[in-house]
């Protein structure tokens, strides 16, 4: 008996996805809507290498990413490199490297492929794509205003209805003043408590209390103050002793102007927004899905005034956000916002007879040159089987070019959805298809 051959698995690497044509159409549509929205604000697209020096992430990324999530290795030149887990360090390097030649403000965006070694779950994979939008060179809250307008406009461009998402905003200086002035914690305590607050919503109340008590000076007095801070509103947060009043005024002014620009109903002040990255220094925000089955953060960002400090002595303020394709897809599916992405704008041409292949190809060439997407069969199988191919591929319109149509300088068009079929003149066919059939 012959040994059975062991075939390789057809499954993709854990935490990654295969994009068959149907999934690729969805991905391209999502990217096109995001790209169109950001371009409308005057932003320019950039990209960088997938591989970077390990030192770049060691210096610019959070501890969790570097220690547990980074795909890193030694290359053949004995250099330690890493596959990018986020785009911001690359962005900082690029901006610092060409700083003198960049007109201010710098408005850039990208949709890079990113990798993190983490446990895959809903909304979280090891490989994903992420829209990154960043604005450099504006020190006032108008930078926050524009970034939040873009974050809001993207979901509206996808057709997100009122109330389907919420933009929660806070400020790192509020948290810093609360921890350092109100609670009187030292730097090590501030670091530990802020990290714990960032994951508070992901652990039980008992676990949170057990972990935070050792970090405090007087848990009995400080725990109630922490709960007061986390539940405060924009109206009463300034009543907490030691809170940074400038940050409160900053957010109030920001909310007032965003309200006049039509974003007010989506905005909420939430001091529990921490943002895990160490480089955020000012206003921070997260966009949350309100779908009961997907109540989670979709994306977020904030200000990072010292981001290029490792590369340049010059200071350049920056603000930005990242929107991942996995969480966006979950949001769009949860709110039924994905349109029919079938191939209804592409025509299908069967081969009526082997002798008509060249004439059919000429018609296809003519249609493509006039902007009509066209697929032509390459053999003359039975017409019924060719129509089945068109139906299986999701086409709506089929054009027939037979001997009689060639003689009468016409074509037959069939709508596979309605079943209707009629004759169209060959002359001016492309214009007719665009006008009457929206092709």
TrEMBL record:
Which keywords does the record carry? Aminoacyl-tRNA synthetase, ATP-binding, Cytoplasm, Ligase, Nucleotide-binding, Protein biosynthesis
Mention any Pfam family matching this sequence.
Answer: HGTP_anticodon
Return the InterPro entries for the record: aa-tRNA-synth_II, aa-tRNA-synth_II/BPL/LPL, Anticodon-bd, Anticodon-bd_dom_sf, His-tRNA-ligase, HisRS-like_core, HisRS/HisZ, HisRS_anticodon
Binding residues annotated for L-histidine, in chain numbering: 86-88, 116, 130, 134, 275, 279-280
The molecular function terms of the Gene Ontology recorded here are:
ATP binding; histidine-tRNA ligase activity
Q: Which HAMAP family does this one have?
A: His_tRNA_synth (MF_00127)
Q: What is this protein called?
A: Histidine--tRNA ligase
UniProt source species: Leptospira tipperaryensis
């Amino acid at each position: 008996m012959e040994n059975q051959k062991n075939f390789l698995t057809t499954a993709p690497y854990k935490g990654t996805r295969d994009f068959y044509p149907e999934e690729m159409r969805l991905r391209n549509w999502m990217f096109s809507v995001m790209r169109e929205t950001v371009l409308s604000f005057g932003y320019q697209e950039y990209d960088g290498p997938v591989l970077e020096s390990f030192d770049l992430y060691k210096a610019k990324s959070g501890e969790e990413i570097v220690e547990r999530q980074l795909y890193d290795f030694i290359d053949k030149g004995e250099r330690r490199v890493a596959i990018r887990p986020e785009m911001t360090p690359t962005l900082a390097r690029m901006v610092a490297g060409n700083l003198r030649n960049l007109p201010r403000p710098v408005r850039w965006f990208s949709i890079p492929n990113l990798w993190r070694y983490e446990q895959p779950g809903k909304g979280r994979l090891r490989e994903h794509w992420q829209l990154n939008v960043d604005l450099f060179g504006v020190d006032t809250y108008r930078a926050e205003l524009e970034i939040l307008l873009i974050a809001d406009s993207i979901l509206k461009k996808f057709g997100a209805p009122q109330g389907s998402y919420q933009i929660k905003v806070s400020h790192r200086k509020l948290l810093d003043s609360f921890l350092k002035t109100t609670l009187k914690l030292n730097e090590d305590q501030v670091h530990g408590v802020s990290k714990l607050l960032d994951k508070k919503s992901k652990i039980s109340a008992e676990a949170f209390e057990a972990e935070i008590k050792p970090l405090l000076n007087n848990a009995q007095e400080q725990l109630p103050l922490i709960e007061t801070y986390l539940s405060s509103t924009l109206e009463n947060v300034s009543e907490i002793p030691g809170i940074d009043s400038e940050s409160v005024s900053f957010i109030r002014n920001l909310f007032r102007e965003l309200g006049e620009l039509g974003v007010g109903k989506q905005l909420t002040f939430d001091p529990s927004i921490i943002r895990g990255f160490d480089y955020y220094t000012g206003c921070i925000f997260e966009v949350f899905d309100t779908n009961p089955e997907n109540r989670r953060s979709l994306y977020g960002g904030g200000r990072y005034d010292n981001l290029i400090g490792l590369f340049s002595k010059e200071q350049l303020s920056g603000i930005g956000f990242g929107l991942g394709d996995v969480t966006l897809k979950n949001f769009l599916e949860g709110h039924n916002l994905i349109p029919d992405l079938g191939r209804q704008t592409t025509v299908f041409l069967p081969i009526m007879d082997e002798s008509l292949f060249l004439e059919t190809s000429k018609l296809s060439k003519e249609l493509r040159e006039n902007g009509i997407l066209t697929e032509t069969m390459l053999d003359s199988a039975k017409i019924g089987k060719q129509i089945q191919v068109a139906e299986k591929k999701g086409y709506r319109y089929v054009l027939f070019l037979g001997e009689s149509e060639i003689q009468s300088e016409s074509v037959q068009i069939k709508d596979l959805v309605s079943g209707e079929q009629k004759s169209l003149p060959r002359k001016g066919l492309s214009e007719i298809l665009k006008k009457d059939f929206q092709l």
